[in-house]
Design goal:
The protein has about 375 residues and is α+β, with helices and mostly antiparallel strands. Among the domains are: about 110-235, Proliferating Cell Nuclear Antigen (Box); about 250-360, Box (Proliferating Cell Nuclear Antigen). The protein contains 7 helices and 19 strands. Strands 7-2-3-4-19-18-17-11-15 form a 9-stranded antiparallel β-sheet. A 6-stranded antiparallel β-sheet has the order 6-5-1-8-9-10. Residues about 5-30 and about 210-215 have low confidence and may be disordered.
Length: about 375
């Protein structure tokens, strides 16, 4: 079909308001004034209308559907936020204070104390029977421990002075140990280790001086063996005071004899009574049905001195405390001091030197 070009004066009739609404591709026009009637013959008008309808169908067929796209929102103005972020991420640099020059490293200070194995075993056993952990004070004269048991029934104050060597090393250079050096130790673990030493062995124990380094380990060397172990913090360990007591009775007795008597009392009771008279010392125990008494006469196995006005002084003591202590000093000679319902005090000076106090059991009337 051949279309005749539409005269310019006829084009205004091709687009109507309805076509604008139904065909989005046709550019919307402003409303035009109504067409003026002309003297066009009727048959020409029919032909014009047919041509317009045919052209409208062709336009509708050839024009592709309008593609729709999501309109992208214009990017927000984030310049202000970026500037704020940069300001937050990069704060103004403050002036860096002047740094002090690093302090020189502290010199490594260690102390080393050497003992013969046998006295060291006795010392540790005397402490370990009462407490598991203890604060040990080392100096050039040896070691010293003062400890009280958790129940505060007994106290021990013991010195080990059989020193083979006691030195302080400053960056490896030895010199005589000048000051007291306290350190904490697991005495049970240390005793178990030292028990492996032979009688003639020299046991050397070394540790860093307090706050001297970050390693702070105990080192034990004996018979070719070297063992390290962590020390115990002394902050929680008690530092007890020895009470001042006036005890009128004084008895000199072998620890082995007193140990035998306490073992005999264990068969009858869990408490033992110690009685000092001008004639000697009596160790007795009384159970529900049985009784036992062991007497040590003055001038034969004991020496007795009474300084008070009375003729006898007696107190009752827990056998488990007394027996466990006597086992650790069974080779020693003891000086026993006693009063009525007062603690018993036992002093010795042999392989080790010390004092042991045990509280009495007060019987209600």
């Amino acid at each position: 079909m051949v279309y005749t070009p539409i005269p310019e004066w006829m084009k205004e009739t091709l687009v109507s308001p309805n076509q604008v609404e139904t065909n989005p591709t046709v550019q919307e026009r402003e409303p035009e004034p109504e067409a003026v009637e002309t003297d066009v013959p009727e048959d020409v008008q029919d032909e014009i209308r047919a041509l317009a309808a045919a052209e409208a169908e062709t336009l509708a067929f050839e024009e592709p559907p309008e593609e729709t796209f999501d309109e992208e929102e214009p990017p927000e103005d984030t310049d202000g936020e970026e500037e704020a972020f940069e300001a937050e991420a990069q704060p103004e640099e403050a002036e860096e204070p002047l740094r002090e020059p690093p302090s020189p490293p502290r010199p490594l200070r260690r102390f080393e104390v050497a003992f013969r194995a046998e006295p060291l075993k006795a010392f540790l056993a005397q402490v370990a029977h009462l407490v598991d952990e203890a604060k040990i004070v080392a100096n050039r004269d040896g070691w010293h421990v003062r400890a009280v048991d958790p129940a505060h029934v007994a106290l021990i104050d013991v010195h080990l002075t059989d020193v083979v060597d006691a030195v302080e090393r400053m960056d490896g250079t030895p010199r005589s140990l000048q000051d007291d050096v306290p350190f904490g130790a697991d005495v049970e673990k240390l005793l178990a280790l030292v028990k492996k030493a032979k009688r003639e062995d020299i046991v050397r124990i070394a540790a860093d001086l307090p706050n001297a380094s970050d390693q702070d380990m105990l080192t034990v060397e004996m018979g070719g063996m070297r063992r390290t172990m962590a020390p115990i913090d002394t902050a929680d360990l008690a530092d007890p005071r020895i009470p001042a007591l006036t005890l009128p009775a004084k008895v000199e007795i072998a620890a082995a004899d007193l140990l035998d008597a306490s073992r005999a009392a264990e068969d009858v009771s869990d408490h033992v009574r110690l009685t000092a008279t001008r004639d000697g010392l009596s160790v007795s125990a009384e159970g529900d049905m049985d009784k036992v008494s062991i007497d040590f006469r003055r001038g034969e196995s004991v020496e007795v001195e009474l300084r008070g006005p009375g003729d006898a002084y007696s107190s009752l003591f827990p056998l488990d405390y007394l027996t466990s202590f006597l086992k650790t000093v069974k080779r020693e000679a003891l000086v026993l001091r006693l009063g009525t319902d007062y603690p018993v005090r036992l002093d010795w000076d042999g392989m080790t030197k010390g004092t042991y106090l045990c509280a009495p059991r007060i019987e209600s009337p």
